[in-house]
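Running this now, will post back.
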Amino acid sequence: NVYKNREPVPHMKAVYFITPTKKSVDGLIDDFITKSSSRYKAAYVYFTDFCPDNLFNKIKSSCAKSIRRCKEINISFFPYESQVFTLNVPDAFYRCYSPTLEKTKDREAVMQVMAEQIVTLCATLDENPGVRYKSGPSDKASKLAQLVEKNLENYYKTDEKSQIKAKTHSQLIIIDRGFDPVSTVLHELTFQAMVYDLLPIENDTYKQVLLK
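Update: finished.
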């Protein structure tokens, strides 16, 4: 964890698996401020998403000699089950729909983050899908769809001529939560739902204590 104090191990190399944010990059740089005070011998840096040029240049100017590898691996999402994933943005619903939230920029920022995360999922699956959305009852689905399409175009540009990878046969469908609000309050009639109701599940894991 780059946010916490750690014991220096100057004779060992470190692997950094971090998000491309200012806070994470600052934590990385702090570990290699000077050669004499470096926490590790060298660093292998893997970003979960596209690293903006300003952050990349900051690393380059601060600790480039300590970086052995720097790579973007595009997995800015959380696989929850074999065919289910989440973006792990718990306050997204509030920031997108709250009538009391006055900061429009905050709403646009969270939608941009979600669009970038969805694109990393498409990149992992090697898909450039057609993006479709259900219009109404609000404009959230259309705005998110436009952001996803724009980020897909930017990601799949292959050269200076701005040639873009052809669309694949897959379709990405974005639906506003208001399209089906009832599902959020219905109880699922599955064994999985029953297990969560009856057993003490923590972090999707059930631990059984055997008494001898």
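The chain has a mean pLDDT of 84. More later if anyone needs it.
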